[in-house]
Write a structure and sequence with these properties.
The structure is a single chain. The protein is α/β, with parallel strands linked by helices and 569 residues long. The longest helix is centred in the C-terminal third of the chain and has 19 residues. Helix content is 30%, strand content 25%. The strands form seven sheets. Strands 2-1-10-9-11-12-13-14-17 form a nine-stranded mixed sheet, with helices on both faces. Strands 4-3-5-6 form a four-stranded parallel sheet, with helices on both faces. A four-stranded antiparallel sheet has the order 18-19-20-21, with no helix packed on it.
């Protein structure tokens, strides 16, 4: 081993080994557990040497069980053992598959499908979930493979210490399974070079000062943003990471806010709905306890980022010292490891008021009055990569023209696992994102998903814009719990618009109220979008399909509608 700083493209284990030698006792990763509602949080912390030792213990077990290039699936709760298991896979040159335990409600089918697809040679778990994992495998007729409780592995002088065959930059480090918002989940092959490049891009984009930065995250580690922000970037940059469980956040979002203020220079990330959730579920009496003046960056990596959410969040937490400039709208996707662009700087986020008619025709035309317009939030500039907007033929479009977003950079994954026939990059080597957007004043505006666009009478309509119109038109609808999509007309002459919306909890509408809501929505959609609403279905809470990252799964909602699977109320 050497104490020299690893090369820029060195794999994550080299960086971990460096910090273990250079700063052995310094705080590396912490996990905060909340055993009950009254708990202020129990902290468990590992220094760099201890984290490295635990990762090596995992690697030592893996090299005795499986071969380099085999897959090891992480089916365990969020925490320090998860981080050690992931890093141990990379040490052993085993392809990690970040997943979740069978205890996550509502996602057993997805877990089984991913395990069948990646064909793991072993399953990494912990002593609290190993029995449940073994039962899950049997219940779903999956191949029986060793289940390794990583928290029971001995810490000693490892045989792995003598293994000097480091992974090559292009070797696959892990499979990042997409959340399935538009299709069946697919595993993106992320190389060792990809993840380190993206970690560096994030560090540069968000102005990380390794000597004065701590990431505080509740995002699941089996998702791209949680994995890169809470594990990869801290290991590359040598700064601390504080983890908490997503359920702990959902139980009380003030827990996350308190942790953000517990350290100087904190960086956090969340999807758009989580910022609204913080506003709705945080007791104003808690504001006096918060130190949000210590926050450096709050990343909003949603589809879409909403200006109203940003305004509400800052209005609610300004008394706690929150600087409006901390909010950083960002764009990313698993196929690019995660981070692509970010609007992070010394000023609050930028919004662009667009003419909806021009937007439907593929142009960005700026208006002064936002009353009858689409308000788009800038997702900033590329982070160490190239972003191009192209037309249907792949030709580059000028600024203020809407087209598909395509990318080129060292963070672009190697393709989809076992899906060589599925298009990933175009002939020019640019990643096909499937997302639509435009560049305005040098900054990226994301307008929607290509597969989600509703085409009626030759005009493009973005479902999130229609969903927002429905939300502000009637009180019965739950915010962020609806899906707009197109379905074939009965006469086969094109598509018609359908909206499936969950009603608010405790406010089940009568039949008359549901009909009145449909009339109101029909008028609003006609006036704002020039569209005729085919149907509004008001359904019980929990009915609209969502991905494991909380996004509305519009393709799944459309399929369920066509199959008659919704039970309207």
């Amino acid at each position: 081993m050497t104490s020299a700083r690893p090369d820029a493209d060195a794999p994550l284990p080299d960086h971990l080994r460096y910090w273990a030698l250079r700063r052995p006792q310094q705080r590396a990763f912490s996990h905060v557990h909340f055993p009950d509602a009254a708990s202020e949080g129990l902290h468990r912390t590992l220094g760099w040497r201890a984290l490295d030792a635990r990762a090596r213990a995992v690697a030592d077990r893996l090299v005795a069980l499986v071969a380099p290039g085999d897959r090891a699936a992480l089916v365990m709760p969020q925490g320090l053992d998860y981080a050690a298991a992931f890093l141990g896979c990379l040490y052993a040159r085993v392809i990690a598959v970040p997943l979740f335990g069978p205890q996550l409600p509502g996602h057993g089918g997805r877990l089984a499908a991913v395990l069948a697809d990646c064909e793991p040679a072993c399953l990494l778990s912990d002593s609290t979930t190993a029995i449940a994992v073994e039962a899950f495998v049997l219940d779903h007729d999956l191949p029986v493979v060793p289940v390794v409780p990583v928290d029971q592995l001995p810490l000693q002088r490892f045989a792995f210490d003598e293994v000097e065959t480091a992974p090559a930059p292009d070797d696959i480090a892990y499979l990042q399974y997409t959340s399935g918002s538009t299709s069946e989940p697919a595993g993106v092959m992320i190389s060792h070079a990809n993840v380190v490049a993206n970690a560096r891009q994030a560090i540069d984009a968000f102005g990380v000062d390794p000597g004065a930065t701590t990431t505080v995250g509740w995002l699941p580690l089996f998702h791209d943003m949680g994995l890169v922000l809470s594990i990869a970037a801290p290991v590359v940059g040598g700064f601390p990471s504080v983890l908490m469980d997503p359920v702990a956040f959902l139980e009380d979002p003030a827990r996350w806010l308190r942790l953000l203020g517990a350290y100087h220079g904190t960086i956090g990330a969340a999807p758009n709905f989580a910022y609204d959730y913080c506003v709705a579920r945080t007791d104003p009496a808690v504001l006096d306890e918060l130190r949000l003046d210590r926050v450096r960056v709050l990343i909003n990596g949603s589809e879409p980022v909403r200006s109203g959410t940003i305004d509400r969040f800052h209005a609610a937490f300004a008394p706690a010292g929150l600087d409006p400039a901390t909010h950083a709208p960002a764009y990313g996707l698993a196929e690019a490891t995660v981070f692509v662009t970010a609007d992070a700087g010394a000023t609050p986020p930028t919004t662009v008021v667009c003419d909806t008619g021009a937007l439907a025709e593929g142009r960005v035309e700026v208006l002064q009055d936002a009353q009858e317009a689409a308000v788009l939030v800038s997702c900033g500039v590329p982070a160490g990569q190239e972003v191009e907007i192209v037309d249907a033929d792949g030709e580059r479009l000028p600024e203020d023209r809407v087209g598909e977003i395509r990318l080129r950079g060292p963070n672009i994954g190697r393709g989809y696992w076992k899906r060589a026939d599925r298009a990933f990059c175009d002939p020019q080597g640019r990643l096909r994102t499937g997302d639509l957007g435009a560049v305005h004043d040098g900054r990226l505006l994301v307008t929607g998903r290509l597969k989600d666009v509703i085409i009626v009478d030759g005009r493009n309509h973005y479902p999130q814009d229609i969903e927002r119109t429905v939300e502000i038109s009637v009180d019965v609808v739950r915010q962020g719990r609806l899906a707009a999509f197109g379905v074939p007309r009965a006469d086969s002459t094109g598509e018609q618009l359908v909206v499936v919306a969950e009603h608010r909890r405790g406010a089940e509408p009568t039949a008359d109220a549901a009909r009145q809501a449909e009339r109101t929505v029909r008028a609003a959609v006609s006036a704002r979008h020039g569209l005729r609403l085919g149907a509004l279905l008001v359904v019980p809470p929990g009915s609209v399909p969502r991905t494991s990252s909380g996004k509305v799964a519009r393709t799944a909602a459309r399929a369920r509608y066509l199959d008659g699977g919704f039970d309207p109320r």
